[in-house]
Amino acid sequence: MSTPPRQRGLSLVELMIGMLIGLFLIGGMVQLLGANRQVYRYQEALSRIQEHARFALETLGYEIRMAGYTGCPIRNEIANVINGAGTTWWLDFNTGSVRGYDGSQHFPGRAIGTNTGDRVAGTDAATFIHGGGDSYTVATHNPTAAEFKLNTTHDLDDGSIVLVCDATQTSILQLTNVNSSNVTIVHNTGTATPGNCTKGLGSPVECTANGTPYTFGPDSSMVDFVPTAFYIGVSTSGTGRSLYRIRSQVSAATTSVAVEELIEGVEDMQIFYGIDADGDRVVDPDYVDASAITDWEQVLSVRLELLFVSLEDQLNIEPQWIAFPSADTGRANLIGDGFTAADRRLYQAFGTTLGLRNRLP
């Protein structure tokens, strides 16, 4: 009985076939890993966009809903005794509690430019002013001494701007002498920035030493004065756009405003306004942009449109088209209106409509 010959090696053909099969397997694994990595990058970018959108809508939504809030009747006479209240945008509560700026309109909070923090041309901006923060109750008010006593201790500082109101009068003033260890606060003239033009808190405002006197009685309300503004600006990275917020800050008896970058990756913001032009306390059917509004007291609701973009490129097979109102349409939800990307980053649009609850019936 013969013994079969032992195999002493592989032929060249067998080696080539084995290598070819190995290459196919390796190629499949590489392709699978690459596809999984691309899916992971896409899902991560989508999650980041949705997270940013949620934060932006909550932040903007709160300011929009609170616009015009004082804690007292909205029909009150308003006396703003702060120096520059009629010319400084973030102090102008009467006409600026809600105010928008179309992409081509001058926004006093930040000029259009290409440097970090500058406003991006073609994007909208808006200001929302209201009362908020901690609420205090007035125990006594001595208008001659320009002095309030509160019912509780407080966290107010020298230079804080506050709203004080009762059933008929709302006044905006700056605190000039605050002692955190007691309940007494002073609103005199000449010792803070921008400062009060008068001690008198009544209407109409007269910028004299005593002005128009007014005494707030017990149980009057005092809240912080909260001005905010939002715009789209050049991000700190210099390669994209971000949502910026402007809000007040107090330091050394001086109140000013500061710009802060909230969220990177916000490509555009378009804002449209629902107005009540006929005085029936109902929003008119057509929402308009800021350039079409002449009386901002008619605004009862805001339609907010935000376009977000991933920070990473090469996420889409081709440049993306997405439905989004462009800067030159002049109205919201124009059929066929959209945005076409110039790259392969991921874009997603978010929108919401919010009522100004301090102006609605």
TrEMBL record:
Pfam families: N_methyl, PilW. Keywords: Membrane, Transmembrane, Transmembrane helix. InterPro entries: N_methyl_site (IPR012902), PilW (IPR032092). The lineage of its organism: Bacteria, Pseudomonadati, Pseudomonadota, Gammaproteobacteria, Chromatiales. This is Pilus assembly protein PilW. It comes from the Bacteria. The chain crosses the membrane at residues 12-33.
